[in-house]
Design goal:
The chain has helices at 19-32, 46-56, 72-79, 113-125, 130-134, 138-169, 179-212, 230-258, 366-377, 383-394, 432-440, 463-474; strands at residues 11-15, 38-43, 60-64, 86-92, 101-108, 266-273, 276-281, 286-288, 291-294, 299-305, 310-313, 320-323, 330-334, 340-346, 358-364, 419-421, 427-429. By secondary structure, it is α/β, with parallel strands linked by helices. It binds dinuclear copper ion (CUA).
């Protein structure tokens, strides 16, 4: 039993009507208290204690817990009338042979005494002895600890199994449609299992503790003081370290597999802008707003942005790549392995229409791909049809509707030869000259009620393409 840590010299007052108690305590103190400590008094009644506190000025008071003549409540109520802080120890030498049992040990200020007394009084009323609440025989602890351990392990195992089965039922990931998604999904699976285990471990122990070790009515004691556990601390440092190293090793292998280069890929240029995608097939001479890919052939997407940062993401392919403005062409390799219709979504906040920056992706058989290429590489000789195609491909339709609805910019329906209100209150007739000027220099005459957010797409267009688009707008009456 350590009554006090060595270090500070103490002035000790012993309160007991039994002389043997005082002697026993003195013997214990000699071995444990710092040099310079002294027993400043041994008193046997409350009255003597009060006057000794005033005259001898102790800073540690040891009270005989088993002595009926030194009533705890009365004793404390009196002696704490001083404003000083006293270390108070309630001690029993009766039980446990030569052992001393400390029932309560704390430093009290005058203001805390009421609480302290109430706590002890309550225990007396309810008929429970203070010992039951505070002391616990060491021998009983082992077997009950083992019981707790086994039960909490069962709780964790049950929680883990339940979540594992539950998660199997809920399909968290969309359909997997690329060779890359196979290894990525395996990695996801591994992480899900580890997360479920950690969740079960933490929540299992927490729920068990909340229920089993909850505070019972009338129990105002502090929890036992635990100094630490070196074995446990080493374990919870080494184990996560090994897990993180293992995961990073597996992760780097998956990354290598995802970036695997096939010998004869298909190249597609991807141009992103606020708020549409354009896909160019340089070898096939096709520009389109729908990404059409042959199944089981690697495609290399070479991506750039005309304005801000966007992000190319088809969830079914799992991989994702930021698309940057300037000359920073980013590459993304995908091996689509499942025919179907998907969507490319922009996964980087890029302005007001970001949420709607999605376009169709089709994975088709090699035969369908070949016929699609044949169809689309033939140029139409109808300027309206060409204009419609160009307008779609370069992204006009992301902001201009052809059915009268307002998206970001004014609708094209009925636009030709209409009177367009301008911000300064004047109007302008939307003739061919105005349409061409607005395509080439969008900022010059802004339609009233709209913001100037239109990019200078004309910089990348031929004169013929601009004329085609004007023909297409003229057709929308
Ligand atoms: Cu482009 Cu978000």
């Amino acid at each position: 039993m350590a009554i006090e840590q060595a270090g500070t010299p103490r002035r000790v007052l012993i309160v007991s009507s039994h002389p043997l108690f005082g002697k026993g305590i003195q013997r214990l103190l000699q071995a444990r208290l710092a040099p310079g400590s002294s027993v400043v008094g041994m008193v046997s009644t409350v009255e003597e204690a009060v006057s000794a506190i005033n005259s001898a000025n102790p800073d540690l008071v040891i009270v005989d817990y088993d002595d009926d003549r030194v009533n705890r409540d009365e004793f404390l109520a009196r002696f704490v009338e001083t404003a000083r802080q006293l270390r108070v120890v309630l001690l029993s030498l009766k039980e446990g042979g030569s052992q001393a049992i400390v029932y309560d040990r704390r430093t009290l200020a005058a203001a805390q005494i009421d609480d302290w007394l109430a706590e002890w009084s309550f225990n007396n009323q309810s008929g429970r002895s203070a010992k039951k609440l505070i002391g616990m025989p060491i021998s009983g602890l082992r077997s009950s600890n083992m019981k707790h351990f086994i039960v909490v392990m069962l709780v964790i195992a049950a929680l883990f199994a339940l979540l594992l089965v539950g998660l199997e039922q809920v399909r968290l990931l969309p359909v997997a449609a690329s060779a890359q998604s196979i290894v990525i999904d395996q990695l996801f699976q591994l992480h899900f299992i580890m997360i479920i285990f950690l969740f079960s471990l933490i929540v299992g122990i927490m729920i068990y503790s909340l229920v089993v070790f909850r505070r019972r009515k009338g129990d105002l004691t502090d929890g036992p003081h635990i100094e630490g556990n070196t074995t446990l601390e080493i374990a919870w440092t080494i184990v996560p370290l090994l897990v993180v190293l293992a995961v990073s090793f597996i992760g780097s292998r998956v990354l290598a597999q995802v970036n695997q280069v096939d010998p004869k890929p298909l190249y597609v240029n991807v141009i992103a802008r606020q708020w549409s995608w354009t896909f160019e097939y340089p070898e096939e001479g096709i520009t389109t707003d729908t990404l059409v890919l042959p199944v089981d052939r690697q495609v290399v997407l070479r991506m750039r942005s005309e304005d801000v940062i966007h992000s190319f993401w088809v969830p079914e392919f799992r991989v994702k790549q930021d698309v940057l403005p300037g000359d920073l062409v980013r590459e993304l390799r995908i091996n689509p392995n499942r025919t179907g219709e998907y969507k490319v979504r922009c996964a980087e906040m890029c302005g007001t229409q970001h949420a709607f920056m999605e376009q169709a992706v089709q994975v088709v058989s090699q035969a369908d791909y070949t016929s699609w290429v044949t169809e689309n590489s033939v140029a139409s000789d109808d300027p309206v049809a060409r204009g419609q195609q160009t307008a779609q491909n370069i992204g006009c339709m992301a902001c201009h509707s052809v059915d009268g609805t307002t998206v970001v910019g004014p609708t094209w329906q009925g636009l030709f030869m209409s009177e367009v209100p301008l911000e300064d209150g004047s109007t302008v007739t939307a003739d061919e000259a105005y349409l061409e000027e607005s395509i080439r220099e969008p900022q010059l005459k802004i339609h009233d009620g709209f913001q100037n957010v239109m990019p200078r797409l004309a910089d990348n267009m031929t004169d013929e393409q601009i004329q085609d688009i004007i023909e297409f707008i003229k057709s929308l009456q």
